[in-house]
Specification:
Shape: globular
CATH class: Mainly Alpha
Number of strands: 0
Order of helices and strands: HHHHHHHHH
CATH topology: Glycerol uptake facilitator protein
Distance between the termini: 32 Å
Strand content: under 5%
CATH superfamily: Glycerol uptake facilitator protein
Largest sheet: none
Length: 226
């Protein structure tokens, strides 16, 4: 249970500070600032809960770990459940904070850091482009996580590497889709906002899962057992 609760807390922090930076201070921080908010959230949580749960705080990472043979099916299911609960708590807190500041105009105005394509993309990326983007970005992220956590030799720097990797995939992905690479992070704001965000969220669930599966299979086939 400690592991599951750590995943809940870690995902809550990631979503609250990552999506919160995009929704509240996105115009001030810019894409680089938002990307660093997501990355630094991972770094912080990795060194707090990494020894307990592994600090997946992302269903895509858990799926990659499961495919690579590092976790059991029961743990995979419960990790995903608690990650989604944590994401919902984080977005719930963010929505309350935004609605508590009249000058922001409410979360319907600011958004909640949701993902999107077409008219919801900064560059008008279409559905096909969104699917390709999220598959590739998730593959890179999960493949990196699997690689840097494979050996105890890299354990001390794993949190930093993973956080920086999440930041750099966000730098490219934010203008395109807002960057998901994390189904829980995308599902939570879509459930609260509804409308287009909810209609499009399937892309940001399916594509990261596909990217994670590819990363898990390739890592298992190429890197495991070295």
């Amino acid at each position: 249970m400690k592991r599951y609760l750590c995943e809940l807390i870690g995902t809550m922090v990631l979503v609250l500070f990552g999506c919160g930076s995009a929704a509240i201070a996105g115009t001030i921080l810019g894409n680089l600032g938002i990307a660093m908010a997501f990355g630094l959230s991972i770094v912080a949580m990795a060194y707090v809960i990494g020894d307990i749960s592994g600090c997946h705080i992302n269903p895509a990472v858990s799926i990659g770990m499961w495919i690579d043979g590092r976790m059991e099916s029961k743990d995979l299911i419960l990790y995903i459940v608690f990650q989604c609960i944590g994401a919902l708590i984080g977005i719930g807190i963010l929505a309350v904070l935004i609605n508590s500041a009249p000058s922001l105009g409410g979360y319907a105005v600011t958004g909640l850091g949701q993902n999107g394509f077409g008219a919801e993309s900064s560059v008008g990326l279409n559905l096909t482009g969104a699917l390709i983007t999220e598959i590739i970005l998730t593959f890179v992220f999960v493949f990196t996580v699997l690689g840097v956590t494979r050996s105890e030799k890299t354990g001390t720097v794993a949190g930093i590497v993973i956080g920086l990797t999440l930041a750099f995939v966000h730098i490219m992905g934010i203008p395109l889709t807002g960057t998901s690479v994390n189904p829980a992070r995308s599902l939570a704001p879509a459930l609260i906002l509804g409308g287009t965000a909810l209609q499009q969220v399937w892309v940001f669930i399916v594509a990261p899962i596909v990217g994670a599966v590819i990363a898990g299979l390739l890592h298992k086939g190429i890197c495991s057992g070295e």
